């Protein structure tokens, strides 16, 4: 179990790195933003409101995300969070900084952290094989995000190459482009796909597994109708 309070909410994290589970202590009158359906348990003096970030028109285009807001009323309260994916949970305290998350990585944040979907462009989204949208988290306060598999933070000094399916998060100080690794034969026959080439100085968080190969591995074991 990890217990922390680094300038924001007091919290603890358990069952890492396989099935990350987070307990957050919300002071009276404070509010916590949480990914929809991630709440596992909570005290009875917590009130919840649901919000659609981005609006209905953006929701229809796939650009929005649902976030529930949990507020402690008439005293301090505790909430426990369970991500959808079997994997790790990481925490950062943003100090007027910005982090980009892959579109399923957001778990929770302080209400003071702005959370919004960001269009990364048709070319980058289409050719990466991932979503057209990233989640942009900026401001000052706690941020928790989750992965499929364990999370490894990597300090980037000049440049770094990461398979697009292994990216969890990266700092705004890094720029990136989506490219092939090898030629077209490598793209279709090597088992390797497209990569993200980061440049600049900052940090990237990667996950030790990616979903698409896991789905391919599981697929032969699915029951089929005769």
Number of strands: 18
Instruction: Give the overall average pLDDT.
Output: 82
Major pleated sheet: 10 strands, antiparallel
What gross morphology would you assign? globular
Q: SSE order, as H and E?
A: EEEEEEHEEEEEHEEEEEHEEH
Mind telling me the CATH superfamily name? Mitochondrial biogenesis AIM24
Question: What is the percent of helical residues?
Answer: 10-25%
Known CATH architecture = 4-Layer Sandwich
CATH topology heading:
Double-stranded beta-helix
Number of domains: 1
> Which class do the helix and strand fractions yield?
mainly beta
Oligomer: single chain
Strand content is: over 45%
Q: Over the alpha carbons, how many angstroms does the gyration radius reach?
A: 18 Å
Low-confidence stretches: 54-64, 122-129, 184-191
* Name of the top-level CATH class: Alpha Beta
Number of helices: 4
End-to-end CA span: 47 Å
Tell me about this structure.
The chain is mainly beta. The protein has one domain (about 1-215): Mitochondrial biogenesis AIM24 (Double-stranded beta-helix). It is built from 4 helices and 18 strands. The longest helix is centred in the C-terminal third of the chain and has 8 residues, at about 210-220.
């Amino acid at each position: 179990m990890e217990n922390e309070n680094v300038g924001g909410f007091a919290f603890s994290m358990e069952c890492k790195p396989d099935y990350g589970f987070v307990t957050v202590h919300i002071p009276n009158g404070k509010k916590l933003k949480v990914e929809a359906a991630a709440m596992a348990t909570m005290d009875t003096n917590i009130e919840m409101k649901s919000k659609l970030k981005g609006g209905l028109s953006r929701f229809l285009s796939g650009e929005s995300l649902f976030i529930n807001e949990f507020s402690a009323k008439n005293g301090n309260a505790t909430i426990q969070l369970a991500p959808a994916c079997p994997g790790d949970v990481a925490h950062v305290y943003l100090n007027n900084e910005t982090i980009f998350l892959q579109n399923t990585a957001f778990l929770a944040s302080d209400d003071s952290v702005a959370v919004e979907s960001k269009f990364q462009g048709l070319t980058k989204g289409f050719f990466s094989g991932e979503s057209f949208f990233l989640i942009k988290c900026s401001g000052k306060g706690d941020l928790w995000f989750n992965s499929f598999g364990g999370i490894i933070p990597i300090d980037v000094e000049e440049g770094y190459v990461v398979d697009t399916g292994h990216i969890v998060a990266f700092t705004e100080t890094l720029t990136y482009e989506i490219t092939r690794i090898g030629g077209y034969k490598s793209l279709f026959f090597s088992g390797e796909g497209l990569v993200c080439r980061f440049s600049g100085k900052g940090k990237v968080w990667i996950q030790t597994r990616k979903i698409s190969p896991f789905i391919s591995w599981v697929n032969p074991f699915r029951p089929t109708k005769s």
